[in-house]
Amino acid sequence: MNRRLFFNRLLIGFGSASIVKERGYALKKKNKPMVKTPISICTWDFKKANFQAGMALESGKDALSSAIIGANVEEENPKNSTVGYGGTPDREGTVTLDAAVMDHKGNCGSVLGVKKVVNVSSLAKDVMEKTPHVILSGKGAQNFAIKNGYKLKSLLTEDSKKKWMEWKKKPIYNPNTNIDNHDTIGILCLDKKGNIGGVCSTSGLAYKMQGRIGDSPIIGSGLYIDNNVGGAVATGLGEEIIKIVGSFLVVELMRNGKTPKQACDEALLRIYRKNKSPKFQIAFLALDKHGNSGSSCLQEGFSYYRYKNNTNKNLKVRPI
Ligand code: SD4
Prior knowledge:
Shape: globular
Order of helices and strands: HEHHEEHEHHEEEEHHHEEEE
Bound molecules: N-hydroxy-L-asparagine
Number of strands: 12
Structural class: alpha+beta
Radius of gyration: 23 Å
Number of helices: 9
Strand content: 15-25%
Largest sheet: 8 strands, mixed
């Protein structure tokens, strides 16, 4: 074999080897998609809710379904006075619930001011999947729930009724002072496929005006997800969160290179600067595409749960 032929064969050999290698890699990738470590994060100290979401993710459920499994836990918990059954009523004594969901494809659904339906996060998902709309409110949302097999149940527990009657004796309505009374569940999940889904579910502010809606069911305010970037949820005084389209802002800040923590801080600072020494509580919680999480709050007392690798940890957040 002359030298040129030898080198040509050598080159062809290298070429085909790398193609085989490349094809082999491609095949491997196709047959065995990369499995991500699932993560669930959740506002406040909802240990059980976040754990259930984590377990659902481990079993292979998608991000949104897992987040809803977590939210359902608090919606059914009579002791949680800001979510679902046992939620604090409006000033007329009626409990109304708000919820929003969003998936990795940018689909979303929400329900506003719904009476007598416990699992409003599931209902929001049904709005997303079974109607041509994004939002249903009040009676229409309730009728849609009935048609879809939801059972109606009074949401006012003996305990929340007692507290409301007590409040009525001196009915001071000042949501700005409502620091301690926050328990809204915002939950973000990253599933094994690397997709993000999330939920926000609440009964809103205690003794709110009849018909008042906060940030939680407003897509972009209480919840926002962009699967290429990450997701965010909010809790606290909804009026202030709506004014800056809080969760959307956090996601956009992450898109521009901020970490989840930096993005939450910056969004919160916008509220802080507008309100001199704010007395109300607001917290943002964010999860990026890579599973990093971060949070920021205005007042003492906020923490969040983070589930990863069978560990469900409570992380305290220091006020900015
Ligand atoms: C609202 N953001 O309706 C809700 C309240 C809340 O914990 O988060 N409570 O304004």
